[in-house]
Amino acid sequence: IAAFGKLGIPAELVNPSTGLVAVTEKRVSNTLAGQPLSRFLSCGETMTGARANQDRIMLSVVSYAKPVGTSASRVETRIVATATDVSGTGTRQPCTTTGELEGRLHRMVKAAVGS
Prior knowledge:
- By secondary structure, this protein is an alpha+beta fold.
- It has helices at residues 2-6, 51-54, 100-113, and strands spanning 13-15, 20-29, 31-32, 35-36, 41-42, 45-46, 49-50, 56-68, 72-84, 92-97.
- The strands form three sheets. Strands 1-2-8-9-10-5 form a six-stranded antiparallel β-sheet. The chain has a two-stranded antiparallel ribbon with strand order 3-4. A two-stranded antiparallel sheet has the order 6-7.
- The two termini are 17 Å apart.
């Protein structure tokens, strides 16, 4: 939960019994965690650069912490995002993840639990 907040996407859904932590349909633009969105998402290019840095992004991040044995856990994260052109056409483009956001979340969780 803390990792989501530190990244600027405070968790909206939390279910301790299932290990769910999520933010859904969060509108983000230009940057996330002080970095250009293109560091985290690939949404295509325009003549002026990466769409992730220019368009309005709808971002969903869903993480589950699952027990592995009696003394360990595994964190799985899924990211879904779309870019909407705000300069005229309003077309939506699916985005793919670069893996950087998941990596940051997982490193922050490991640091928080001391492993």
